[in-house]
Amino acid sequence: MVHYLSITIPMNKNYKYLLLAGMLCNLGDNLIGPFYSVYVHNRGIELVDIGYASVIYSFVLAALMYYVGKASDTFNKKAVTVLGYTLFAFSSLLYLVISESWHLFAMQIINALGSACLAAPLSALMTEYIQKDKSGEQWGLLNGIGRVAVGFSVLLGTLVVKYFDFTTLFFLMFVIQISATFVQAFLFKEKKQQMETAGSI
């Protein structure tokens, strides 16, 4: 059970993993939120290229979402989402080395692939593990915790930049994102336990 604003909500164990991984992803991904354009511009990249990078991200994500979602029907959805979180973690460190526009464009393509891996496959897993008679409640919990994580992330990112530096911020992003990856990987325990159970029959 999870206690959220004094509400006790029973839930599937794998749903808890999805919930925690999603919260960590939101927490890590939004640390740079208010400072993204400032930091990238200070790295020598023109403001117009920052805009182009967002355009590239949007179009690449739009192109990939369908195909990655379709591929996840053949491949393991859990593995696809773990890959998505891994790409986000890797991308966090790329902020340390970007110095030209094409670096930023490449990073946004990686982010788009990561987002595509977490779009349809993650929704499919949520639908599988969510409690059917509590679907509205548990989707609400997921979205609510996600927004709380974003708000806390922006605050934390602001404090890290104020009292430390961007290098610290990006390593913190990496640690949080890789933690989300490991939490998501716990979903594989279910399959292993099912195989062990089947083997003991």
Write the layout of secondary structure elements.
Elements: E1 2-4, E2 7-9, H1 13-29, H2 36-42, H3 47-72, H4 77-94, H5 101-118, H6 120-129, H7 135-163, H8 166-185, H9 188-200
Antiparallel strand pairs: 1-2
Helix pairs in contact: 1-6, 1-7, 1-8, 3-5, 4-5, 4-6, 4-8
- Output the helix-strand order: EEHHHHHHHHH
Number of domains: 1
The SS-based structural class is mainly alpha
Distance between the termini: 30 Å
- CATH architect. name: Up-down Bundle
Textual characterization of the structure:
There is one protein chain. The chain has 201 residues and is mainly alpha-helical. 79% of the residues lie in helices and 3% in strands. It has one domain: MFS general substrate transporter like domains (Growth Hormone, Chain: A). The protein has helices at 13-29, 36-42, 47-72, 77-94, 101-118, 120-129, 135-163, 166-185, 188-200; strands at residues 2-4, 7-9. It has a two-stranded antiparallel sheet. Helix 1 (13-29) packs antiparallel against helix 6 (120-129), helix 1 (13-29) packs parallel to helix 7 and helix 1 (13-29) runs antiparallel to helix 8 (166-185).
Q: What's this model, at a glance?
A:
This protein has helices spanning about 15-30, 35-40, 45-70, 75-95, 100-120, 120-130, 135-165, 165-185, 190-200, and strands spanning about 1-5, 5-10.
Can you tag this structure with a few keywords?
about 80% helix; two-stranded antiparallel ribbon; about 200 residues; 2 strands; Growth Hormone, Chain: A; 9 helices; disordered C terminus; mainly alpha; globular
